[in-house]
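TA notes. Do not distribute before section.
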Amino acid sequence: MVPADEREALRALLEWQIELGADEAIGDRAVDRFAEGDRAARDAEPARPGPTAAAEARDATGQPPAAPAEAADIDVAVAEAEAAAAAADSLDALREAIAAYPHCELRKGARNLVFADGNPKARVMIIGEAPGRDEDRAGRPFVGRAGQLLDRMLAAIGLDRNAEDPRRAVYITNVLPWRPPHNREPTVEEIRMMLPFLRRHIELVGPEVLVLMGNTPCQAILGRKGITRLRGKWTEAMGLPVLPTFHPAYLLRTPSAKRDAWSDLLALRARLGLGDSDRKEES
């Protein structure tokens, strides 16, 4: 029998691995890590052009080669996303269109489509990056530790995702509706494919203010990254005032940034015209 102290150590190690995204105990088949290492070393070697490389670099007209098929496939996928998003005349229809969209590979590894949460009549629409492990399981955005911190942050300025009063309500979604494997950063191609749905989502909700939490929504909506430079500075997109700020997950990793995040919250409260009477005590 394993001693109690060893059991606690093993449990702590398992929880740490789960927090890092290792939430599957085994794979479908055994993996030869030594062979993987040899293959990675070979892949790292620089490619050596063959004798026909120079000829293949131009076609018969002397022009550069056409774009790879993958790029053309992405363009087709984006065009189909734009058509499907434009045809959605309600939030329910938009959710169904996203669920039926076949081109984003993330859907194959996700447990649930994470669409949105909160009051769609809210004045404030918050856009995050992508679902995490807890969100993927629950099918709702911002429900893990970062989501709990977000709820406390909003309550501190009088906002609540569960509020029925649009004046105090928020509506929350993400750039991507499916969880990337191991919580990795979304790729440019994934953002491009899902951006038409996000834009239509914003149009259907019609908020007064957009709050972009983290680099990925800034990249998607503003076409810029660098949240430490962008945060706290009001800008505009899609005809709406936009406030970039830190993602709550970043604040959990970097508590020293909470002071700047609080400054951003105060700027949002001032923009909405909320007074002290609307504020709740932070839990």
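Switch to the second chain here.
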Amino acid sequence: MAHDLTTSAPDVAVIVSTDAAEAAIGATGLINCTPVGMVGYDGTPLPRSAMGGATWAFDAVYTPTNTQFLTDCTAEGLHIISGWELFFYQGVHAWALFSGTPLDQSALRQALLKAG
């Protein structure tokens, strides 16, 4: 994955580490692509104390929509993107790919949030 990221974005520094707090040092963005924070996997993959200096965070977890990771990132002033957006756009793009018919994204978003 690191090789692919470096190949596709050579100006981006890619760091591989087994210590999340160490890897976060100097990072401008934080991404959680683990199940930690998902229903049944409580917690956060990164301590709040390691979030300083970053400006944004993305959590691939979408159930629940607000994880401890995102709560901590918000408290640290980071701009966050919830995994719910991943869930939503996977469906939108799958619809377009398989059906080829138009989709009212606004209405779908409202209906999903209401069904919540």
